[in-house]
Design brief:
By secondary structure, the protein is an alpha/beta fold. The protein has 20 helices and 17 strands. The longest helix has 66 residues, at 400-465. The protein is rod-shaped, with a radius of gyration of 46 Å. The chain starts with a strand and ends in an 11-residue tail after the last strand.
């Protein structure tokens, strides 16, 4: 029977159920928790802790309704924790009347069965046979030991639970054909014994009351059918068993250790199995007393519920009641309470150390210092989590520190990708803009070349005709010099438009960088440095054109440092690329000018101090080499050191050009 299952639509990635499951019977698949019925002990912890109500248990109301509508007599046997559940019903006899109104022919107290079980436990503990016992009244505990500590099955007390004993009492008192329905706070009871026909939780019973519109004031008060309970009514509270039989559990005189709750009972079992609790017996409860079972209405307070149990017991323990109980107890004291438990080992073999280590490494846990053991994954230690992953019960993503680190790495990668994308988009936009301007510049240059050639030719002819001392010669020299200047401008436009030819030759890159420094005037307050980080300093480039590129960048860098600074020309790259970094510590470039850097005739220099073609020419030459140019600049000293870096990236050889394209 599948006692507990998951409503996947409600399940969220919290792993609380994994943490609270003592049997680790919950498998995580794609972030969804799946209950493995073959490993589940029916403790219901996952149901109690799931805030999303994604864990539900098997409902028996329809099955019980069918039994009630059958021809059989039906008896309800009520767990002794009912006063802690139905606190809104002040008179317990009204509660019994409501149960009868549902169609039950008989209503008995399981607490009488607890009295009989307690008697048997007392006999076992007083035998002093040297054998230590583990209580077997909690079916979840019994299943846990049978499945995961099978070597301790022999220590389980050979006694059935109060529910089963009471079922045997009812059949002896009435008839073997009577149908029996147990009503209590426990889910594991649904799969405990075939001697009970159906099991309802208190939650389900409340639902049946509501559907039938039964209220205390609408029913006749009724007493439980005999035999009535004695001290067994305190069975559902913590230490209920030993209180029922008046056994000491104090440190000095007692030989019974009481452990309850997920952590408590597991620790007690481990120490018992390790033979650390010599001479001690265990009373174990999976919940913190049956009054906190998963079949109870959620939200109840433990100690408040305990007071309701105490009040009920005090109310019932009258001299007349005790006399009646004693008579009934003597009548049924010889009822069979024996039970033989069999191991059902469901442990998985531990994976190899290499498999576990591989998983730990994949989560970034290379040494014990990396094992945070935070428990966020639902497992107590990182090692247990890794083992569960190997066994197919868990996922790597359940590790919160690992997931956070992965998220940070992803965000960092995403930020880098966005930055690269923004740069590519900006470069594409700039390339399109410059391409249009290049076409225009090429057209203008070609149109100017012919008339400019005529002007230069005739001005030089006239210079030859006039003697040096002729006043007209000075005017003609001015015409010739300005025509030469126009020729350089036209040549710059052609370079920008990438219409000139590239003459590739093998050159020494370090020498090129050093020559570019020598070709400019370096002021005394500027320090010029060449740094070469290449092993192979040779590449196929056009020496003259690349000299023009570096010279233009060097001049701009020096002019950006009017108060002095450092000019650095770095040569680096890879086997396929050459990278020139021209750095200065100058004033930096304002953000609003970054988009205009390579636009022909754009300059921030004064009139007559620049044509605005330096960077445009540089851009064209780099593109003719099938390379790319990048720039980083800061002109705000509050953001860090000011300065500019131009990065030129060019393929080493002509055949590698396509790999360097944007």
């Amino acid at each position: 029977m599948k006692l507990v299952y998951t409503v996947k639509e409600l399940c969220r990635v919290c792993y609380t159920c994994v943490r609270e499951c003592p049997a680790k019977a919950i498998r995580i698949i794609n972030g969804q928790a799946e209950v493995m019925s073959e490993r589940c002990i029916g403790c219901g912890n996952c149901i109690k802790v799931c805030s999303q109500e994604a864990k539900v248990f098997y409902q028996s109301r329809l099955d019980v309704k069918n039994i009630l509508q059958s021809e059989h007599k039906v008896a309800a046997i009520i767990a002794p924790s009912f006063p802690a559940e139905f606190t809104d019903i002040k008179d317990y006899r009204k509660f019994v009347g409501m149960v009868r109104a549902l169609g039950f022919d008989y209503v008995f107290e399981v607490a009488f069965g607890a009295d009989l079980v307690a008697k048997k436990y007392k006999e076992l503990l007083e035998e002093r046979s040297g054998k230590n016992y583990i209580s077997s009244d909690c079916p979840a505990i019994v299943s846990y030991i049978r499945y995961y500590h099978p070597t301790l099955v022999k220590n389980l007390a050979p006694v059935v639970s109060p529910m089963v004993v009471m079922a045997r009492v009812v059949k002896k008192k009435l008839d073997k054909d009577v149908k029996i329905v147990f009503v209590g706070p426990c889910i594991a009871k649904k799969a405990e014994s075939e001697e009970v026909d159906e099991v309802l939780t208190f939650r389900e019973l409340r639902g049946m009351f509501e559907l039938s519109e039964l209220k205390p004031e609408l029913v006749e008060a009724s007493e439980f059918d005999p035999p009535h309970a004695g001290r067994g009514a305190i069975f559902p509270v913590s230490r209920g068993l030993i209180q029922t039989v008046n056994i000491f559990d104090d440190v000095v005189e007692g030989n019974v250790i009481v452990a309850e709750g997920r952590i408590g009972f597991q620790e007690a079992i481990k120490e018992f199995e390790a033979n650390s609790l010599k001479g001690q017996n265990l009373e174990l409860l999976c919940c913190e007393g049956c009054i906190m079972g998963p079949g109870m209405t959620p939200g109840g307070k433990r100690f408040e519920r305990r007071t309701y149990i105490s009040s009920y017991v005090q109310q019932r323990m009258t001299p007349e009641h005790l006399a009646e109980w004693k008579s009934s107890f003597e009548e049924f004291c010889d009822i069979d309470t024996a039970k033989e438990f069999q191991p059902s080992d469901r442990r998985k073999p531990l994976p190899s150390e290499s498999e576990v280590h591989k998983i730990l490494v994949s989560m970034g846990k290379f040494s014990n210092r990396d094992h945070l053991n935070c428990g966020a994954c639902g497992y107590d230690t990182c090692l247990e989590h890794a083992i569960a992953i190997v066994e197919g019960l868990a996922e790597v993503e359940m590790c919160l520190p690992y997931t956070i680190e992965e998220m940070h790495a992803s965000l960092k990668d995403l930020a880098i990708s966005n930055e690269k994308l923004a740069k590519v988009q900006q470069a594409l936009k700039q390339s399109e803009k410059l391409a249009h301007m290049g076409q225009l510049s090429a057209g203008i240059a070609h149109e100017l070349n012919n008339p400019l050639g005529v002007v230069m030719m005739y001005s030089n002819i006239l210079l030859d005709e006039y003697p040096p001392d002729d006043p007209i010669r000075q005017d003609i020299e001015l015409i010739a010099s300005q025509a030469e200047r126009c020729k350089k401008i036209v040549s710059g436009l052609l370079n920008f438009a990438r219409k000139n030819q590239v003459k590739l030759e093998v050159i020494n890159l370090k020498k090129l960088a050093e020559d570019s420094i020598k070709s400019v005037v370096v002021p005394k307050n500027v320090k010029a440095v060449v740094v070469c980080n290449l092993g192979d300093c040779e590449a196929q480039l056009d020496y003259e054109q690349m000299m023009q590129v570096l010279t233009n960048l060097n001049k701009n860098a020096i002019e950006a440092m009017p108060t002095g600074g450092i000019l650095t020309v770095e040569v680096g790259g890879t086997d396929k690329e050459v990278i020139f970094n021209v750095k200065d510590t100058g004033t930096g470039i304002p953000d609003e000018n970054m988009d205009k850097l390579y636009t022909p005739f754009f300059t921030t220099k004064g009139i007559g101090k620049g044509t605005g073609l330096g960077l445009a020419t540089t851009y064209g030459i780099v593109k003719m080499h099938k390379g790319r140019i990048e720039v980083e600049s800061n002109n705000d000293r509050f953001k860090g050191p000011t300065g500019t870096t131009f990065r030129i990236i060019i393929p080493r050889e002509e055949g590698e050009a396509d790999e360097c394209l944007e």
